[in-house]
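Much of what follows relies on a compact textual record of a protein's fold. Each token is a code from a learned vocabulary of local backbone shapes. The record below shows the convention in full.
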Amino acid sequence: MKPTDIPSGAASPSRRWPLIVIAAPAAVAIWSGWVGLGQLCGFGLIQPFPGIVSWHLDTAITLPVGVEAYGAFALGVWLRPHDIPPRARSFAKKSAIGALVLGCFGQVIYHLLAAAGAQRAPWPVIVLVSSMPVAVVGLGAGLMHLLHAAEPEQDAATATGGRGPVEQPKPSVAADAETAARDALAASITGGNPLSRNQLMTRFRLTRSQGDEIVRSLAPAQSQNGNGSHE
């Protein structure tokens, strides 16, 4: 085969480094926007372990880490081609779009406030921004639950060779009263105590002609058991 005969689909896998070049400046802008908005909303330096360790943490960094990390995670789940349950894929799609839209609004709000020289954000913005970490935790936990909820079903399908759960054979059920009566009479003949025609008529609500026909059909079996009574 000549090199020119190789199909185009067999080309080397796509490289990921262009994504790094694209994402690096965007990450800087997004990080600075969320940190700046967090500071305008009351996020700042705290001492997480007072009296234990004299560490300080600027909580403004929690916004870009939480919101954008979840958006990227949900986007990856949504666009992954295989092994994603339908409910998890749908949830990931909606929440990824929501996280990206929310991130856009956060950047816009910060730059509007910074351009206006604001020292603090309006209270509606503070309420929204301060609720975001809790919302992100809930979305992340919900998506992980949906991803793992289908694992038992997948394990069962794998154990059965991808054919799904094995159906147990259902017990045979008589189609009608005559069949049930014939089965009952045959069983009673085998047991040495054959049912009479009247017993069959009473137990299975048969007419006289139906009872006679059933008894006649099994008359040879009755004769072999030494009992030819129809009553």
